[in-house]
Amino acid sequence: MTEDKKSLNFIEHIIEEDLDNGMDKNDLRFRFPPEPNGYLHIGHTKAIGISFGLGLRYNAPVNLRFDDTNPAKEEQEYVDAIKEDIAWLGYQWAKECYSSDYFQQLYDWTVDLMKAGKAYVDSQSADKIAEQKGTTTEPGVNSPFRDRSAAENLDLFERMKNGEFNAGDHVVRAKIDMSDPNMLMRDPLMYRILKKDHHRTGDTWCIYPMYDWTHGESDYIESISHSLCSLEFKPHRKLYDWFLDQVYTDGVRPKQREFARLNLSYTIMSKRKLLKLVEEKIVAGWDDPRMPTISALRRRGYTPDAIRKFVETVGVAKRENVIDVSLLEFCIREDLNKKAPRVMAVIDPVKLVITNYPEGEEEWLDAENNPEDPNAGSRKVPFSKELFIERDDFKEQASRKYFRLTLGKEVRLKNAYIIKGEKVVKDASGTITEIHCTYDPRSRSGSGTEESKRNVKGTLHWVSIPHAIQTEVRIYDRLFMHESPDGHKEKDFMEFLNPNSLTITTGYVEPSLKNVTALEQFQFQRIGYFNVDPDSTPDKLIFNKTVGLKDTWAKQSTDSNKEKNSTPVKKQSIPKRSGIDEIKKLGKKYTNVPDKKRLLLKESIQQAADNVEIEELEELYGTAVKKAGTRAAVLLGLEVLLDKNAMLLDENAKEFIQKAAEDVNEILAEEGKRIKNKFNIT
């Protein structure tokens, strides 16, 4: 087997085997067949990615077909939204098709089946038909109308079409085998009466074909070669093939194959349950940024590249599994880290006054737009005597390991000066209203003075109060608190709603954001990634939190599990692994796992680095060359520390990064080159 074929997923293996067995590559054609009864969600992106991905791989057309056979639930609004979502993801369909285009052909084929004695009109109630189906261990019972004559069936079928009967009076069933072990083969429904206007055909039809009858025949009409669907349709394959046997004459015969659908933790995928969230106003609509719909992800700030990377990383599997939502969040962090301009914003402000800064003076300081993108350039940010900083960036009294602002200690203001906490002003309730500091006027970042090179451990972001733009900030979190909100028979999924899934606060941003446009994305430095909500106006900016810089849920989950499993034991009997030991442990396997696992390891390493000192990493700079995984983990930890304080980039760190970039291990070298470029190491 060639190296290329080894890397194929099982669906691609099927296609390659078909080509090897004589199938013409020009006959390859795929389709994505959504039902227009709701908005597409993250679970659909896998099916979209598989079908359109195969189209790209084999240079084959992919149809977008709307399976619009149920006018009671389908609307043009959903059709338009689905088209917008697929185009936004970056895919282009060859033909836009509708199952409703084939209603006449399906009707004509049904007439042929009745003439051949393979379909009949059943006049029983739905309950009676269900009762006669039998069980998995007992055969079904034939309908008393199963042996109607072809003439009577044809007459009733035409009268059904002409609207002479009410819904439920009659249905059409295929005549197959009421004792088949596959219960779907026990005379399945083909048509029902439904007196509803259709979003495309209006009132032309009052009978509508069932999905199983429509699906394969639509594939055949469109010459689809491989009909790909999720695993729940595997039992339907026998019926799919039986229906095709009745109508197939020549040309490409479609082949149904199934893959595991995408299930995501802390998420529900049921359209019915998502609709309930909308109708009961738990969320503001289908595009509420807490929803898993593609339109909601777009509004929240997710990118097509991040979603496509996520789908690619998840891969194509034959077995159902649940993907941790943190992988999706990691993919958007990785993408926005490369693309999003850095800006300064304060979302929980407290006033900081630099007492020795000249009254009425201001400066415009240089600030880098994106250290990951050398071509992103820089901008000017205003600096003045009065600033906003984050309230949790100051403690009146703090431990030795607290590296943010406190009384008597120094920190650096990002792109600006070193300041020292002097005193605080409090209101009558004891809440701090102002922090008074002094600054070193010769310590301005980038000035080249000895004072500017002083090594202080903390760096804070800020905004100048006279120049700041007030903004509404919507902090979104996961909509559900349980990783499997839909997996409890005894409890309703609504019981797991997160009461803190949306927090709205007033923040302040730097003036460079005055003229932003809807959906523009930014990194609020030291906070997370945000984008401009479409509700924004020139007079009122609104930002949505896309994702934090790190996964805070991992820690919450760990803490929660500790509480659940806790028993009265001596504290020292549960040794806690230090940050540096965690980095060493994770590094051992970093270069030897699949991409999906490596992405999760990377995030864990970055989290562990929060509790590491530079001196601990320096001891590992000399790790043996053969231990590429450990060196990669140290490199990622070093990046975290340098993001906090670029002054830690000394000659030893530069040499370590340079060697990593030149390493023979591709994974280590890739990370080394990225970090080398990020910090402009020559």
UniProtKB/TrEMBL annotation:
It is found in: Cytoplasm. The gene is glnS. Residues 125-146, 554-574 are annotated as: Disordered. A motif ('KMSKS' region) lies at residues 268-272. PROSITE patterns: AA_TRNA_LIGASE_I. This is Glutamine--tRNA ligase. One of its GO terms (cellular component) is cytosol. A motif ('HIGH' region) lies at residues 34-44. L-glutamine binds at D67, Y211. Its EC number is 6.1.1.18. It comes from Aquimarina brevivitae. PANTHER family: GLUTAMATE--TRNA LIGASE, GLUTAMINE-TRNA LIGASE.
